[in-house]
Amino acid sequence: QNKEFVCRGHDYERLEAFQQRMLNEFPHAIAMQHANQPDETIFQAEAQYLQIYAVTPIPENQEVLQRDGIPDNIKSFYKVNHIWRFRYDRPFHKGTKDKENEFKSLWVERTTLILVQSLPGISRWFEVEKREVVEMSPLENAIEVLENKNQQLRTLISQCQTRQMQNINPLTMCLNGVIDAAVNGGVARYQEAFFIKEYILNHPEDGEKITRLRELMLEQV
Fold first, then answer.
1. CB half-sphere exposure, 207, CA atoms < 13 A
2. Cβ-Cβ contacts under 8 Å for 39 (sequence gap 6 or more)
3. C-alpha dihedral (73, 9, 63, 157), degrees to nearest 10
4. What is the pLDDT along the chain (221 residues), one digit of tens a residue?
């Protein structure tokens, strides 16, 4: 009925298993293979469609998550409980795509879904009351990626220091990915994209964000 819900799957349930479970419940439904907003023909169609994709919870208690000295198991609880808002990111390229450095034109369309009630509740799913869509620039995207990576490093280091982690492989792997970023070139690509004179002159409004990106790089080092 053209409604949208966020559902909490079973523990350790893969997205494919959840999709199959929903299709078993709605045997006549046609599964949509993308997460883009459906067009009007789908909304007006006589047939039944199901569009299923993964969303990321946006914790309400940021203060708890960022405060030092709070045990990780408490932080883990607040990351996935009492959640009203969820988000879905769709990367896309604007303008000319640089084959040498794709970060220069990599924008993110961020859709935030706001529920009528927080999850988990008396039910495992609640209806979406409101959706908001914003576009994040390549620079804003770079800042968020670095913030998340720095937070991940801090958490892993803390777990090692408090002897919560018996095996230090997760930290070693994370450090390898940061120091020798084999997949996408790491922070060097951000420097090439946003610290060059041409970008700074063409985007005078981004001065504070460029400073923020530089601070995050130093913090990571």
1. 3
2. none
3. 40
4. 899 999 999 999 999 999 999 999 999 999 998 888 888 999 998 999 999 999 999 998 777 777 777 887 888 888 889 999 999 999 998 888 888 888 888 999 999 999 999 999 999 999 999 999 999 999 999 999 999 999 889 888 888 887 777 788 889 999 988 888 776 777 888 998 999 999 999 999 999 999 999 999 999 99
Contacts of 200 (CB under 8 A, 6+ apart): 206, 207, 210
Q: Is the pTM of this model over 0.85?
A: no
Helix axes 138-161, 169-179, angle to 10 degrees: 150
Could you give the domains of the chain?
5-136 (no CATH), 139-220 (1.20.58.740)
Using a 10 angstrom Cβ sphere, with 0-12 exposed, 13-18 middle and 19 or more buried, the burial of residue 90 is middle
Cβ count within 10 A of residue 130? 10
- Residue 87, strand partner residues: 56, 112
CA 202 to chain centroid: 28
Helices (H) and strands (E) in the chain, counts: 9, 7
Q: Is 142 helix (H, G, I), strand (E, B) or coil?
A: helix
Q: In what order do the strands lie in the sheet with 83-93?
A: 5-7, 125-136, 106-119, 83-93, 56-58
Structure tokens belonging to residue 9:
């799957």
